[in-house]
Amino acid sequence: MRTRPILRVFLLSLVILVGAGVGIAVSAPTTTRATVKTAHSSKYGTLLVSASGFALYQLASESKGTIKCTGSCAKTWPPLLLTGGAKPVAGNGVSQAKLGTIKRPDHGTQVTYNGKALYRFVSDSKPGAVTGQNVAGFHVVLLSTNSASGTASSATTTGGGGYG
Q1: Measured between alpha carbons, how far is 77 from 12 in angstroms, rounded to an integer?
Q2: How far is it, in rounded angstroms, from Cα 113 to Cα 95?
Q3: Tens digits of per-residue pLDDT, 133-149?
Q4: Which of 28, 67, 82, 113 would disulfide-bridge 86, Cβ 3.0–4.6 Å?
Q5: Are 164 and 116 in contact (CB under 8 A)?
């Protein structure tokens, strides 16, 4: 009758090993997903987008290493955040050397490009939409402009409401 306890220990050990193996397989990344990549807009040219394809913007009144968009501004312009000590990853056409992070006043870690914080616009309802250009001092981040709209990177700055 000693075989029952040995069988139980064996089965329990097997369950633990299989569970650990599944955990390892699930946690091991198979591909690296870009945090920031490029997309082409027929109106603006080549621009930066998030991993899910949403246009990325910068606030003209923010300088390198500063965050002015907080509170209600950050609700309209959600910052591109990283979690768990992750580092930003450049997709095709994006310079890894220009990507970085900055600590936000609300304790988040925000992705930067060329030293300036990156944001999305809540009214961009689908990937590829660029409805926040020159809204409240924000402008889409362009890597190259469409010759027909060479002024796309210019921004109109407005103040107030936590927008800088």
Answers
A1: 51
A2: 9
A3: 999 999 999 998 775 54
A4: 82
A5: no
